[in-house]
Specification:
380 residues, globular, disordered C terminus
Length: 380
């Protein structure tokens, strides 16, 4: 939703002057979208911490209200022609007051199923996420084209608000509220979840560069509709990969599964620049999607296994910080590459992002493993 909203706003009939034509409008839309994405994950741990303390129900019901109001104000600012700078401020605010329901759902799975079945539960949650990215864009486009962009945005906001209300009212699956019986928990997360959080910068870079590059890749063939097919290929691959991963029984540790799937993803990602000028890129994107599914599922399972039991919802939100930092970075670098050499460099940024997931993860896990050894040497 954060990516679709500003794109439709930028096409409203009340537009500011565009010094460089349609390209300027596209850049403005991408910038406002990035502002929304940045605001959402950085407030995510605070929302999740509040869910731990107050329970999910009141927080999700409040979020349904704040989401609706914030998006309405942002759309109104665009329609009445307020200064462009206010769009960015309101987009950050809208992102900050929009709850990322992913951690809340994963916390419910954590409370409902046994540890050995959680990878399957997280796979189901990942499939649900990807189905949204496959279904929502074409539906929103059809509504906006048939009626008006504002109607499309209103439908998306309504669906999001209803979803938050529904999840908030589902009492049976909610994890128990954490009672404060001792000292107040630390604000900073434990070191064990930092490797995944930092590695998720690469995940954000991959998605950010992929979105921008897909559009340029489709334009190269003179068929803009191919961009939707490219995005659907990645999402469909992700769904299949998560489904297969969730159905398997794993003997390796969560750390080994996460790093092993990251190796496969890095290898597949490196193939993208070599097929940037052909339709084979659709197949490679599907393969990359099939491998990012296990990386995401194993990564979140690893975070959950290292989280304090009274902070599960909060700590599951931290990887989104990495994604939030990586998306604008990836889209910006890909945009520079696209201007310089077209889709080849755009897909190169995506390939580097896939490799970064592995490199950052390996470095983080190595540093984490080295801490006990350093501590034992100091005490001897």
């Amino acid at each position: 939703m954060g990516r679709a909203l500003p794109a439709r706003n930028a096409q409203s009939r009340h537009r500011p002057p565009r010094p460089d034509g349609p390209t300027g409008a596209s850049r403005l839309a991408a910038g406002v979208g990035a502002a929304f994405v940045v605001g959402m994950p950085f407030a995510g741990p605070l929302w999740s911490r509040l869910m731990n303390r107050r329970g999910q129900r009141p927080v999700l019901l409040l979020a349904a209200l704040t989401l609706s109001l914030a998006i309405a104000v942002l759309v109104a600012a665009v329609l009445v022609g307020m200064p462009v700078a206010t769009w960015f401020v309101l987009a950050v605010v809208a992102g900050a007051v929009s709850v990322d329901v992913g951690p809340a759902v994963r916390a419910r799975w954590s409370a409902l199923v046994s540890p050995e079945r959680r990878h399957s539960a997280y796979a189901v949650e990942s499939i649900a996420d990807e189905s949204v990215f496959v279904i929502a864009p074409p539906v929103l486009t059809l509504i906006a084209a048939a009626a008006a962009p504002q109607i499309g945005i209103a439908v998306i906001v309504m669906v999001g608000a209803v979803g938050l209300l529904w999840l908030g009212l589902l009492r049976g699956s909610q994890p128990p509220r954490v009672a404060l019986t001792g000292p107040r928990p630390r604000l900073l997360p434990p070191l064990g979840i930092l490797p995944v959080t930092v590695a998720w910068i690469g995940v954000g870079g991959m998605f950010g560069s992929f979105d921008v590059t897909s559009i340029a890749w489709a334009d190269r063939f003179g068929s803009p509709w191919l961009a939707g097919l490219m995005m659907a290929s990645l999402a469909l691959g992700n769904t299949v990969g998560a489904l297969v991963y969730g159905a398997l029984r794993h003997r390796a540790s969560l750390r080994a599964r996460w790093l092993g799937s990251s190796v496969l993803l890095a290898v597949a990602g490196l193939a993208l620049p070599f097929v940037a000028d052909s339709l084979v890129a659709l197949v490679v994107a599907a393969v990359v999607g099939a491998l990012i599914g296990p990386v995401l599922v194993a990564g979140f399972a690893l975070v959950e296994s290292r989280a304090d039991r009274d902070r599960v919802t909060e700590l599951l939100a931290y990887p989104s910080l990495g994604v939030g930092a990586g998306i604008p970075l990836g889209s910006t670098l890909a945009g520079i590459g696209l201007d310089a050499a077209g889709p080849v460099l755009g897909f190169t940024v995506m390939a580097v992002s896939c490799v970064a997931i592995l490199v950052l993860g390996v470095i983080g896990e190595a540093l984490l493993s080295a801490r006990p050894r350093v501590a034992s040497l100091r005490s001897s």
